[in-house]
Amino acid sequence: MPSSRTKISSTNSSSNPYLIRRIEELNKTANGNVEAKVVCLFRRRDISGNLNTLADSNARDFEEESKQPAVSEQQKHQLKHRELFLSRQFESLPATHIRGKCNVTLLNETDVLASYLEKEDCFFYSLVFDPVQKTLLADQGEIRVGSKYQAEIPDKLAEGETDTRVQEKLETKVWDPDNQLKDPQIDQFLVVARAVGTFARALDCSSSIRQPSLHMSAAAASRDITLFHAMDTLQKNNYDLAKAMSTLVPQGGPVLCRDEMEEWSASEAMLFEEALEKYGKDFNDIRQDFLPWKSLASVVQFYYMWKTTDRYIQQKRLKAAEADSKLKQVYIPTYTKPNPNQIMAPGSKPGMNGAAGFQKGLSCESCHTAQSPQWYAWGPPNMQCRLCASCWIYWKKYGGLKTPTQLEGEAQGLSPFTRNEGRAKLLAKNRQTFILQTTKLTRIARRVCEDILQPRRAARRPYASINANAVKAECTSRHLECLCFLDNNLASVTSNAPKDFMFK
To answer: Can you give the residue ranges of the BAH domain (predicted)?
Structure first.
């Protein structure tokens, strides 16, 4: 689950709740002080009523889609205090404002909302707040997990059973694993396709300028676009090598297939890198603000090809070296200054009533207790409201009271998961595709039993079944080799959980 390194800081008034900030970097100033560059996160109390209605609608939709278990009204009220809104607003704050740490995670459909109430200093977010435009947008980094995103695999047809599906609605077949060609013949044809691609680039003027050397042209001709075209050609020509050869080199000259890496100019690539530095992997904003003449699919394809280049590796190394040189830790002494909102001075005798100037017999505005070792003034001064020690800590951390009150700006029973107000329209959520990740044992079996699995042959015949029992038996018989591979090649993975802090 994604986590954000967050700090909580107080506003100018000591009576206001902590602010939540995510630390981007720590910098040392010329006079020796340490400043933190932070990203702002906002609470519900920081946004307008219209945007709160929008957040309510999003919360109801989430509850329905994820089928959340029933919770009490008080829990629904407290869940609003755990919801935050991410932003792209940066600011610099003195590191001496740090007051503690917390954890903020991106909400996904496998989460149980009530579990956040069981954890101390835990928050979640699902929407992004723009303080300038005063808008709420769905977060682009939402994780696509849950039962609704799993593929529905139909049952395998029995022997002699006919396929009753409508073939026009199925995917187009692009490769036949049961073709008459052997693997060496296919490999030879792919070599010819690369050679044709290299020759086609030598004849093309624009390609000659971008790839002036033979090595560069050969490298460009060896990318996936050439291999995909070659395999499509075999499929369209019914795996007849002679016809496929003639299709690669028609009468007008050799066929030239170029991908996004060749279609983009150097200036466009520079614009993309500048946009990526500013927006991250928010491809919609990258296209809208920097490359409006490119399609979204073109931007996404270029990104994944750009990640395979030497330039990406060099930039990654430079960023890693820059990160190593930055300040990573700073010592913050314990904050011991007295809070001006304290009604009773530290060391005075605790009891039921507050200090002079406050009426006797007043109870806590949140939990309604009449006894506390320490009382704090809260709310409008003329109301003479106060909070007990535990409720004051809750107010400072979560920005609300444990029970709803009119002074807090909420009526009894209202929550973002039960209100039926008019629903404002949210922008559509752009979700990311999930991935399937193999276990270490499976990856080991691929190496140990490579002669049985034949991964290259299996990749060309995706519908042919693999005898897992035979692979498992062979793996067992070669257990000594497996153990040796584990001992020599698998390094232990440690997880350095990002630290989250609180600002005053």
So the answer is: 1-140
Count the residues in the chain: 504
pLDDT level of residue 141 (50, 70, 90 thresholds): low
Instruction: Using pLDDT thresholds of 50, 70 and 90, give the confidence band for residue 78.
Output: very high
Alpha helices in 264-379 (DSSP H): 266-279, 283-289, 296-306, 310-325
**CATH number assigned to the domain with residue range 170-333, chosen from the 4 options 1.10.10.10, 4.10.1240.50, 3.40.50.1980, 3.40.50.2300:** 4.10.1240.50
Contacts of 5 (CB under 8 A, 6+ apart): 22, 23, 498, 499, 500, 501
pTM of model > 0.70: no
Identify the DSSP state of 497: P
DSSP 401-438: -SS--TTTT--TT--TTT---PPPPPPPP-PPPP----
The pLDDT tens digits of the residues spanning 166-198 come to 877 777 888 888 899 999 999 999 999 999 988
Burial 131-157 (b: 16+ CB within 10 A, else e): eeeeebbbbbebbeeeeeeeeeeeeee
Greater confidence, 441 or 237?
237
- Number of other CB atoms surrounding residue 278 within 10 Å: 13
239 φψ region: left (φ > 0), alpha (ψ -120 to 50), beta (else)? left
- DSSP 3-state of 19: strand
Which class for 130: exposed (0-12), middle (13-18), buried (19 or more C-beta within 10 A)?
A: middle
If you classify domain 3-139 with CATH, what class do you get? mainly beta
94-135 confidence digits (pLDDT tens):
888 888 889 999 888 888 899 999 999 999 998 999 888 888
Reported as a single tens digit per residue, the pLDDT across 12-42 is 477 889 999 998 888 888 888 888 889 999 9
CATH of domain 338-403: 3.30.50.10
